[in-house]
Amino acid sequence: MTRRELNLMIFEGTAEGVLWQPRLETWIGHHQAKGTLPKRYQHLDYWGIYDALRCSVRYAASVGLESYEEPADVVRTVEQEGTRHITTVTTPSGTLRTVEQDIYRDGELVNRRIHGFPVNDVEGLRVLTDLVERQQFRANVPAFQEARNQLGIRGEPTLFLSSSGFTDLIKWHCGLVQTYYLLHDHPAEVEAYLEACDRRDDRMLGAALQLPCRLFNLGDHATNEFTPPPILEKYLLPRWQHLSQRLHAHGRFVHTHWDGNSKTMLPYLKETGLDGVEALPPLPMGDMTLEEIKAAVGDRIVCLDLLPAIHFLPHYSLQECLDFAKRVIDLFAPRLILGISDEISQVGEIEKVEAITELVDRICGLPE
């Protein structure tokens, strides 16, 4: 059996083993750029490192879904003012301006953070809604097939769809506080934006279903703080149910991404219609125990990840990391795609990844 075959079988409910699928992109990219890869990996490329670790790959083939705007009358400009990166988007309905702060270390750009959100009032929200209405999508089947061929037997391709319109408002457009002020002061306009996002999602899904892809991810970034139960019930739960039903009608599987404190959201998982949930960092990183997560997912919903990223830092022992991984396998297999919640950091210890590879191999065997 290959890693790709097992990946799909876990979602189909026919698997007996566990797929070890940590997200290593940040760690690999950092050490390749710095020239600090361990000697045993220095001669290997991205694929070679995954293969040497005998790990599956999750998102390397998330291509083939292309976006464009119609009508194509949106103008974007980018300028640099000192350490600030400014993007201006102009449409016939108005202009949005995003200010990002560049973070340098030893003269090297290491991060870029939003310093000024583009939507600060209801007029800005209307411009954003106009932009969402203009988003269109098309499938590029050859691009997807080429990426799938490169991925090979390492995993079943998983394609990114969209985050919820509500969490996008928090992450990219308004920030947490301003999103809730807008919802309180201008609920009709916020809901008009969210309805536009729902129509956008249906257009996106129409194009995505033209690709020969079976697995999809909604990068929702839902958390207790972003989406408490009243918000989840009104704006996210109906969306998950609708998208799940549409994908299931075409024989596809879909999972969401909950990457923070999620304890108050767990009781809703079985209502979502989703096939899986990604990340869900448990204690000591999040606010949930493994037992609470297991009660929420039951024996139907696939869990992706569940190993806290902080366990891969030096102040946790290898034995602590292995003991926790063994508990996760015992509780969640075979509806488990074992990984790191949600990625190993640049300073994470790759030796622990190697040790978990051996642990999984001893317990249930590693696929090809």
Furnish the topology, listing elements before pairings.
Elements: H1 3-12, E1 19-20, H2 25-34, H3 46-53, E2 65-69, E3 75-81, E4 84-91, E5 94-105, E6 108-116, H4 122-134, E7 135-139, H5 141-151, E8 158-160, H6 165-173, H7 176-185, H8 187-208, E9 215-218, H9 229-248, E10 253-258, H10 269-272, E11 276-279, H11 290-297, E12 302-308, H12 318-332, E13 336-341, H13 350-364
Parallel strand pairs: 1-13, 8-9, 9-10, 10-11, 11-12, 12-13
Antiparallel strand pairs: 2-7, 3-4, 4-5, 5-6
H-E order: HEHHEEEEEHEHEHHHEHEHEHEHEH
User: Could you please say which CATH topology applies here?
Assistant: TIM Barrel
Major sheet details: 7 strands, parallel
Mean pLDDT: 97
Helical fraction = 40-55%
Strand tally: 13
**How many discrete domains?**
1
